[in-house]
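Colleagues,

For the teaching module next term, I've prepared a clean inverse folding example: a structure given as tokens, and then the sequence designed for it. I'd like students to try predicting residues themselves before seeing the answer, so please don't circulate the second half yet.
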């Protein structure tokens, strides 16, 4: 696994690569196991990239909804680690959208993480239409005019901001400071 600083300074890497490197700055991460799990989740989606994107979006949503489904975890540190969210099947909606995006990417789908004031989404589009996978899981609807696409660097920035806040809240100033320092390594455009 490449280090976070190296990935942060280069072109925009795959979402999972950067988020796993970010987690590796704070704790041990089994990258091989996480990659294998993401690949396993992508298997049912193979072959959908050349078909109906509405069907592909529904199948991608099933990844988050199948029994046992994923749960939104908006408050814990663990909810901001991609590998921990995969293992526990609970994560911050940003991370759940990243999981859906990465699973889709591995299956050949052109999926992006999107956000709106109402939440986080994985989105598939064909130029005329956009299908959303709701990672916020609260039933709120996104105003299509408020949707914003995010690269891996922006997701890492948002995750690090969340980590800083959570670590400050529990009095772990060293890790909060580390998260702030790592944010400074990300490109600002």
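(Answer key — instructors only)
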């Amino acid at each position: 696994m490449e280090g976070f600083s190296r990935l942060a300074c280069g072109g925009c890497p795959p979402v999972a690569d950067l988020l796993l490197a970010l987690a590796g700055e704070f704790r041990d991460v089994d990258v091989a196991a996480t990659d294998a799990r993401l690949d396993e989740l992508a298997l049912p989606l193979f072959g959908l990239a050349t078909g109906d994107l509405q069907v592909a979006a529904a199948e991608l949503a099933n990844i988050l909804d199948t029994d046992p489904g994923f749960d939104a975890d908006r408050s814990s540190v663990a909810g901001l680690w991609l590998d921990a969210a995969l293992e526990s099947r609970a994560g911050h909606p940003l991370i759940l959208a990243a999981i859906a995006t990465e699973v889709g990417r591995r299956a050949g789908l052109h999926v992006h993480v999107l956000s709106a004031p109402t939440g986080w989404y994985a989105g598939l589009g064909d130029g005329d239409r956009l299908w959303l996978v709701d990672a916020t899981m609260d039933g709120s609807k996104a105003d299509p005019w408020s949707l914003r696409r995010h690269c891996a660097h922006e997701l890492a920035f948002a995750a690090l901001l969340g980590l800083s806040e959570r670590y400050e809240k529990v009095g772990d100033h060293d890790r909060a400071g580390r998260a702030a320092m790592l944010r400074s390594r990300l490109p600002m455009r």
